[in-house]
Amino acid sequence: MPRFERYVAIGDSTSEGLDDPDGAGGYRGWANRLAERLAGQQGSVLYANLAVRGLTTRQILQSQLAPALEMGPDLATVVSGTNDLLRRRFDADEMGADVETMQRALMAVGATVLSFTLPDLTGVMPLASLLRPRLLLMNQALRNASARSGAILCDFAAHPVASDPRLWSEDRLHANSAGHGRMAEALAWHLGVPGAASGWSEPLAAAPPRSLTAHVGAELTWIRRYLLPWLWQHARGRSSGDGVSAKLPELTLIELRIGN
Questions:
Q1: DSSP 3-state helix, strand, coil percentages of the chain (rounded to 5)?
Q2: What predicted TM-score, i.e. pTM, was given to this entire model?
Q3: In the predicted model, is pLDDT for residue 240 greater than 80?
Q4: What is the pLDDT of residues 111-133, one digit of tens each?
Q5: Buried b / exposed e across 11-45, counting CB within 10 Å, b at 16+?
Q6: Is pLDDT of 208 > 90?
Q7: Using omega within 30 degrees of 0 as the cis cutoff, is the peptide bond preceding 19 cis?
Q8: For the CA atoms of 161, 153, 242, 30, what is the dihedral angle to 10 degrees?
Q9: For 201, how many CA atoms within 13 A lie in the half-sphere containing its CB?
Q10: How many whole angstroms separate alpha carbon 70 and alpha carbon 64?
Q11: 114 and 30 in contact (C-beta within 8 Å)?
Q12: Of 231, 251, 180, 210, nearest to 5 (Cα)?
């Protein structure tokens, strides 16, 4: 495995790290975990995370690619898609072309680039079945873009465990801490980081059955806490990213911490 000196993550809330609390009022997330994993292997790494929640792929390209290129990364992650799926207008080919543009630009400055597909969340959130045709088109566009650019693609959509509800947070749109841990391990494995194992793709133990009452209660709670506020926010033309800036906009030294 080559040594990576400068790692830059660009993307939306998935790369920002929602919902993996860091214990200090912010979010850790798979990108932070990957940077920490690299620091643990190499001793240190410079790391920046430009991701901002709520952005579409086109908005990520317009706002994050240029500053990422200025940092001269030798490792970059380009991850987006959820917000594209949720927009009224969706064009998988256009989205894939934007991802490929970002991948190629980062590779042109010497970066190894990683991207990944998104799993089908119908089992996590039944309403996601309405978006499944879009999801299938988007994931194929991501596969095509990565094949053309030469970026490394982690195909989470091909692994059923990625759709296990126990790896997703209460809002059903973001991974929980266990999910982010698996995602970081998967990317480390794709990079060939020593010690990274393929166990990230293995299924969890069978879950105990849930009663109808518990199921209905969980659905009503989700609708009240998450779906209705989200609908109201978007009805007003607002985004979750309004007023939010990148959590780590400059390259920051991440070092191996003995005892962790």
A1: 50, 15, 35
A2: 0.92
A3: no
A4: 999 999 999 999 898 888 999 99
A5: bbbbbbbbbbeeeeeebbbbbbbbbbbbbbbbeeb
A6: no
A7: yes
A8: 60
A9: 14
A10: 10
A11: no
A12: 251
